[in-house]
Amino acid sequence: MTQAVNLGFPRIGARRDLKKAVEGYWKGTLDAGQLLQTAANLRADHWRLQADAGLDCVPTGDFSFYDQVLDTTVMLGAVPERFEANEEIVSLDTYFAMARGTKDAPAMEMTKWFDTNYHYIVPEFTRNQEFHLASNKPLDEFREAKAQGHTARPVLLGPVTWLSLGKTKEAGFDPLDHLDAILPIYAQVLKALASAGAEWVQIDEPILALDLSSAQKDALQRAYARLSQAEVNLMLTPYFDRLGDNLDLALSLPVAGLHLDLVRGPSDLDAVVAAAPNKVISLGVINGRNVWRADLSSVLDWIEGPVTKLGRDRVVIAPSCSLLHTPIDLVYETKLDDELKSWLAFAKQKIEEVAVLSTALTKGRDAVSEALAASDAACKARKASPRIHNAAVHERLTNVTAKDEARATPFKDRRKLQQKKLKLPVLPTTTIGSFPQTADVRKARASFRRGDISEADYNQFLRDQTRDAIRFQEEIGVDVLVHGEFERNDMVEYFGEQLDGFAFTRNGWVQSYGSRCVKPPLIYGDVSRPEPMTVAWSQYAQSLTERPVKGMLTGPVTILQWSFVRDDQPRRDTCRQIALAIRDEVVDLEAAGIGVIQIDEPALREGLPLRTSDHAAYLDWAVTAFRLSASGIADETQIHTHMCYSEFNDIMPSIAAMDADVISIETSRSDMELLSVFADFEYPNEIGPGIWDIHSPRVPGQPEMEALLRKAVDAVGPEKLWVNPDCGLKTRGWEEVRASLTHLVNAARTLRADIKVDA
């Protein structure tokens, strides 16, 4: 029998129930008992949904209040000293303090989970760190599912991946040096799960999809030599790319099963069949990171032969990775047109696809003939649909030349012209774009969409919000202003709603970090811009002030990365289509009198392939797409870009090749560590390292900001520096924003005086 399994399920609930409960707990409107009950209800609902959809066992331990890396950090008792926990079992409040910070203790660093838009809290390591079992979450949730009648497979983040994702806070040692200290805790957890009745435990080691160092390879061998002694079967689970040259290592590890991400690494299947390992092989053939319906007949044509060779009782069918990255259920999408909806599969539908494949392999195709026929019809209809292709878009792309993909004048010459026009002081201050999306803003938007208020009344409300934001920035002395983006629901969705080739869900939420959820657009066809998208609001804001106001755009790579992208043409081609649409907007902003335009690309690093051999091809088309979007303007117009929560060490030449006049980055959580990369590289253009961590509710004092800014001045000198927060202020409250931005502006003024440059 070929079983149907799942690697992980979305946690947030169909209507973002977990988000609301967690934020209620943070605000004090829910107590711990209510939060825990909401979580238990969600887990029960999700296990039942998965079992009803046809799974042979459900995953447990994949649920999290924040993220699975932080859960592992807590399980191992790796709480940084500044949180003063001293707890045998880490409390809920300490858990959230690690993620969000406190008045006295800055939050732990956050960064992207491999090449996804999901974020995790980065483990912190010191040389003499001690570990202990500080959370019983894996065992508790397994018992919970078992008590509800489910066959369950617990999920753990693997020890080598956890150590590899962390950062040292002391020089001179490797986090992998802690492997021997944490393996006994993993062994203790596995023993407890085995005693509770677990037959299999899934251990996620996505690090196997990377180019491994010899130390990591050795650590994997030592780790699984120890953990394989547990009286439970281990399913080693890498994902997000091919195993490639790590396949022999993965097959050699003494585990009972091995998962293959065959969406990202289809070539691994033939290699595994040829190796004929004495293991259960998990075939990840349903895409866990996109929303398009699978061509089930084609998948069966591909895997039936290999399954026969491996043995049906030694194969399980699964998604390529956890379904954390997809919305929960299409049933809630009552507003999507029937044609487009027929092309889609959310988490529940993907589980059903897994079940159809496992049934076909066990009982034959006739047993699922109806499901296969529906899949065939949907795939055929999608390929033939006239709404996908736009001949004018393709013709325009063929006419793009190298001249269209570069600014006409080198930066050092553009800089003089821009300074003459803008007349900015040294250490100019700005923000990243958005201002608080208050309850009033969200209420007004919802009222307008329901038809409760007129378009004229809604626009007047937005004008009032914009005017107040401009006045506030002028009052405290910000140098380059923003209009606040009150009209925007999301930095990608807002643009997608105005571009051809995009569609939108009503409840297609996915988790980005913590309680932050996003609703990625669906790019189903060729992309173009029918009319200007942001010009009117930027022009209105500029009319309110003599100071420059930035036009705010989202870049082509980020729109691509943060959408569910069509899978019937190369991503490069879709990205270039988006770039041309953004280029049109840039040109129109300049024509409307906007002299500073920011094209955000926080996802450029996120999209970097996991294997070094694939970097060059991606960076070539990604950087070219940005330049295509930004290069249709005069030298005097200043182009900014923004990137956050990314590691830049290995792509600095490409960052420089983007040729943005100014780049702003997140640096406060890393205590300016990221800026050192730009300093060492001698980054040629201007840079704004963030000095306020906006993902934490803390209000940093002016001295704290001054200290960070002094580090930045020491690193790259004052002439190149801008002063700004880490990211946009959408998620913060006005009380925090007023205080923190005032501190930021005053910190810049203090340093201007200290370095004796006339402001």
UniProtKB/TrEMBL annotation:
Residue numbers binding Zn(2+) 1: 642, 644, 666, 727
Keyword Transcription belongs to the record: no
Record text on cofactor binding: Binds 2 Zn(2+) ions per subunit.
SUPFAM superfamilies (alphabetical): UROD/MetE-like
Domain of life according to the entry: Bacteria
Annotated keywords: Amino-acid biosynthesis, Metal-binding, Methionine biosynthesis, Methyltransferase, Repeat, Transferase, Zinc
An example Gene Ontology biological process: methylation
Active site: 695 (proton donor)
Molecular function GO terms recorded: 5-methyltetrahydropteroyltriglutamate-homocysteine S-methyltransferase activity; zinc ion binding
EC top class named in words: transferase
Pathways involved: Amino-acid biosynthesis; L-methionine biosynthesis via de novo pathway; L-methionine from L-homocysteine (MetE route): step 1/1
Binding site for L-methionine: 432-434, 485, 600
Residues that hold L-homocysteine according to the record: 432-434, 485, 600
Residues that, per the record, bind 5-methyltetrahydropteroyltri-L-glutamate: 19, 112, 117, 516-517, 562, 606
Cofactor: Zn(2+)
Domain Cobalamin-independent methionine synthase MetE N-terminal, chain residue ranges per copy: 5-304
Residues that bind Zn(2+): 642, 644, 666, 727
CDD domains: CIMS_C_terminal_like, CIMS_N_terminal_like
Entry-linked InterPro entries: Cbl-indep_Met_Synth_N, Cobalamin-indep_Met_synthase, Met_Synth_C/arc, UROD/MetE-like_sf
Catalytic activity annotation: 5-methyltetrahydropteroyltri-L-glutamate + L-homocysteine = tetrahydropteroyltri-L-glutamate + L-methionine
Stated family: Belongs to the vitamin-B12 independent methionine synthase family.
Functional note: Catalyzes the transfer of a methyl group from 5-methyltetrahydrofolate to homocysteine resulting in methionine formation.
NCBIfam families per UniProt: met_syn_B12ind, PRK05222.1
Stated name of the protein: 5-methyltetrahydropteroyltriglutamate--homocysteine methyltransferase
